[in-house]
Amino acid sequence: MREALDKTTMKNREIKYSVENDFNLNGFTIDEIGDSHLLTGLETPMVEGAFDLSDSEKKEVIAFHFRAIMEALGLDLNDDSLRGTPLRVAKMYVEEIFSGLNPKNKPKVALFDNKYQYKQMLVEKNITFYSNCEHHFVPIIGKAHVAYISSGKVIGLSKLNRIVQYFAKRPQVQERLTNQIADELKQALETEDIAVIIDAKHLCVSSRGIKDETSSTITSFYGGAFESAEKIAELQNYIKD
Ligand SMILES: [Zn+2]
Predict the structure, then answer these.
(1) Most Cβ neighbours (<10 Å): which of 83, 156, 183, 200?
(2) Three-class SS of residue 130?
(3) Mean pLDDT computed over 193-211
(4) Is 136 among the residues known to form the active site?
(5) CA 104 to CA 106: how far, in whole Å?
């Protein structure tokens, strides 16, 4: 435990992390940025050596710090109901809701020849996913629709769902989630003809802050053949419930 904690502390020093950094973002303060969601790039920002700690070491460190958060809030960690929470949260972070940060959990994709000679678009629609907003660490709940046109290869349908789930299980912003799924599909299917549409509700918008319960956010990626208005219209016709 001590060792795992020391390792992360050292890492934090290496990247010159300081509390001041938290309050100085591109020259803005966190209050000026408010709830605006900044997007930095396609890759999820991670430090070098992000997986130097084993999963069980990560769980120990997270539980330790989550306990400190609860204590700072004034909660009584001796209470039977609260006692197990730090470790429960740590397990949930590492094994479930943030498991998509670790490349070892990436779904393996096997390609098959397109024996059916199916040349039209294939659409997998209404893929339900749960992600978390990286600015507030509260849930993003949505549906993803993905489509591709075979370049001669096909993948199992469930892999499309698994790819969506893998990238959803990270702290995310919806724009990046959309592009990461598209990028992975391009590489896995060896084609540019990919479309991804995501319609999601952000709990940081509905349950707090502006408290808008009805709005949802739509993002899309259209690549290759999907850049034509005709293909976009065809796809939208398929996914309109
Ligand atoms: Zn948020």
Answers:
(1) 200
(2) strand
(3) 94
(4) yes
(5) 6
145 is catalytic: no
- The pLDDT assigned to 170 comes to 98
Torsion-angle region of 188 (φ positive above 0: left; ψ -120 to 50: alpha; else: beta): alpha
Backbone angles phi, psi at 55, to 5 degrees: -60, -40
In the reported structure, the alpha carbon of residue 190 is separated from the centroid of ligand 1 by a whole-number distance in angstroms of 33
Q: What are the boundaries of each domain within the chain?
A: 2-34+52-101, 111-239
| Contact status, residue 107 vs residue 223, Cβ threshold 8 Å | no
201 CA → ligand 1 middle, Å: 10
- Name the DSSP class of 105: G
Cα of 133 from ligand 1 centre, angstroms: 5
Chosen CATH of 111-239 out of 3.30.230.10, 3.30.2010.10, 3.30.1130.10, 3.40.50.11540: 3.30.1130.10
The Cα–Cα gap between 168 and 157 comes to 18
Whole-model pTM: value is: 0.88
Distance of CA 110 to the CA centre of its chain: 23
When pLDDT is cut at 50, 70 and 90, the band that residue 48 belongs to is very high
Beta strand 217-222 pairing with 194-202? antiparallel
CA separation for the pair 173, 37 (Å, rounded): 7
Per CATH, domain 2-34+52-101 is 1.10.286.10:
yes
